[in-house]
């Protein structure tokens, strides 16, 4: 009988220790699964610069950042649920869905607000640590990356675009979601 109590105590202790060890990391996660709603998006590498809408292409407007805040609701993004736990992203001001623009001549992949009526692309928005998120285009298997502009004056203006590149874990691939 005493050996059964000792064995039971050891099993209970082991289970309690295991469940505590498993539960601790979950409490340390500093981000949440985003809710459907409106957000400002900010790159960790360009703190204080909201994602907005920039240069027009035939298929839509590319997503950019600059020190001057976007006018109106050009810096407000709506997240809606998509299939398999993903999200669709839409710009509030333009009403267009975010998709990927592939520039064939340079082989660049840019995040863009597509023209009205263009189907939405599905993105996964995953915790990247420190309250930041990685935004991944599921179809391309690439993540949003803030790339500083290369034209004269871009550095002073804080101009950057959002390219889709393979994940490398850098601060340029981590974004903060600020619910508005």
Write up this protein.
The chain is of the alpha+beta class. It is built from 2 helices and 12 strands, in the order H-E-E-E-E-E-E-E-E-E-E-H-E-E. The strands form 2 sheets. Strands 2, 3, 6, 7, 8, 9, 10 and 11 form an 8-stranded antiparallel β-sheet that branches. Strands 5-4-1-12 form a 4-stranded antiparallel β-sheet, with no helix packed on it. The radius of gyration is 21 Å and the shape is globular.
Task: Please describe the topology of this protein.
Blueprint lengths: L1 H27 L8 E7 L7 E7 L2 E6 L11 E5 L5 E5 L6 E6 L4 E7 L8 E7 L2 E6 L4 E7 L5 H4 L2 E6 L9 E5 L1
Antiparallel strand pairs: 1-4, 1-12, 2-3, 3-7, 3-11, 4-5, 6-7, 8-9, 9-10, 10-11
Task: Give the structure's gist in a few sentences.
By secondary structure, this protein is α+β, with helices and mostly antiparallel strands. It has helices spanning 2-28, 154-157; strands at 37-43, 51-57, 60-65, 77-81, 87-91, 98-103, 108-114, 123-129, 132-137, 142-148, 160-165, 175-179. Strand 9 and strand 10 form a beta hairpin.
